[in-house]
Amino acid sequence: MASSSDSTIMTSKVVSPASEDKAIRIERANEYPHEVWFFLACLIALVAVFRLLSFVCSKMFTRNRLSSQDSEKGASYSKAVVNIRNLPLALINLYRVVAFRFTLDFGSYSLNLAEVVLTMMYMAALFTWTFINTTNVSGGKLDVSYWSNRAGVLIASQIPLITALGTKNNIISFITGVSYENLNFLHRMAAHVVFVLVWAHAGAKIAPGLEATDLKEAWLRCGILAAASLTSLCIISLRPVRARAYEFFFYTHLVLVLLVLVGAYRHTENSSPSVFSYQAYIWPSFIIWGIDRIIRVIRLVAFNHTYFGFDSGAGKALDATTELLTPKCVRLTLKRPPHFKWSPGQVAYLITPGVSSLPFESHPFTIASYDSHMSLKEITSSAASTDSDSNTTPTISYWKELVFLINVQEGFTKRLADIAARKGSVKVYLDGPYGATHNLNTYDTNVFIAGGTGVSHTLPLLLDTIEGVRNGKSICKRVTFIWCIRDPRNITWISSVLAQALSITPDSLKVAVRIFVTGSSISNSPDVPALGYESPEATPSISSVEVDSSHTPVFEKAQKTLPVENQDDILVDNPMSLSAFVNLPSVTMRQGRPSLTNLLKEEAEETRGGSMCVAVCGSRSIASAVRKGLQFPVSGPLTVLRGGANVSLHVESFGYA
Prior knowledge:
cell membrane; ferric-chelate reductase (NADPH) activity; alpha/beta; transmembrane; ferric-chelate reductase (NADPH); 15 strands
């Protein structure tokens, strides 16, 4: 007869299904976030490797092109002959077109296929690791006890990633070379995916019902606070809200982010320290955010140290002059701080305590001036010797100082415009520069396209190209500068610096400046009918022109040369008249919208056998038209195999950080 003690021992060794399920759930909840991060780390490393290879190839390509450009003069390329050596470039152009120039439009949102694929990959990764292996030991599939807590752990594991993608000085940007503004899309995308996962996690807990005693638990109340704050964040971060109330978004975003982090940290206190404390996923976010702020404070002190009395005449260097060029544009000019260097196309954050609602409120603006390596004497003497007959005064500010062209809307910019109307000065503190840099020295042709204040991005690129050709660092032979404006008075924003740049352009570089006035104010003036203008209703939109562009000339039928006699109401920043500017040999001024498809096709044909870079900064319609114009067949693989241009595209769209 078996003893009772033996039966007791065997019974104690039998593990209940509930205990076995719990052990499996805890093990997988601890392991799966690590696997997700391994997947993300591999993806980041892959991007970094491609960026490194691209940098190395660019340097080698530049060296080869500089050494061989003389031997390529006079070379011809037949459209019928397929050159198999162009296969790598053909594949690269195929990837560029498919990944970045085909877009999906959702109302006010436009996503290229690369962004769509990244979003789907991230969603697939998180939801796969959430719902995989959720069959319990009894055979029940999608057991809620398996995936609900696991979803919460995966949410916590992604908070450091979302925080890092939202900072301006982050290690992901340092590793991959991708600028913070491009990573900002991934920041919003990851936050929205996690938002869905948050409510999957919360819904699994709410569905069975919550007892009144449950709400007395601090960790649960903090979890509800974090979920509600994240939900509010996702709502106010929608583009219509950011566009109409940016300052409200800015401050609310800061408060809600802190609530999410604090709430999530307290909520994860419920995890078992003996296994793994899930708070370890939350507290690094505070460090990431703190490091970003420390770096920004160091930048502020370094570039604005005159305010702190380190130099004689402290504070005067921070005074910026303001000019109301037109009712919708303010030009802000600031003396360049010591040690402050920037590249064309980069942005700086301006802190203006006298204008902003709060003392350290910052606003991003593109730097419209160029950090020239030429001396002031060289710039002025070159301009004077080349254009000795004109009555122009060199505009040094665009070459050596910091200039910002600010579009007037509501809030901060409206208050700044009121100050500029009185020609007042403001205290400005700089934070930056931020943003991607463009190496345009390797391209045979550069095409710069801007709409309105988007010229702040393309003007420095033009000045950089001209200086690069002058000092022998650039192989560029052709530049086309396209600017779409609503009012002809807007030309005076940059007319003087454009005239000066054209005057110092070397003979080896062909520059064409094409300005299109798209507004209806000119057509509505009394002298329009006599000049043969069509009515505003007859002027086709960009979209209609692009659809049927194969049967239209490069300049639309509605375009006529603009009258420039009456200029009394235009603010001109130098003695040069507007009529003198538009009469320059390289300048063409037209009424109507440009047919960007035909313009880009024409430039690509002129660059056969070489490389072409297109940089665009403007409204969504302009960016969309450029993307369509550089799809097949202009940048197709067959075109490149037959000697067509190797085309790169950089798009900077108007938006809010």
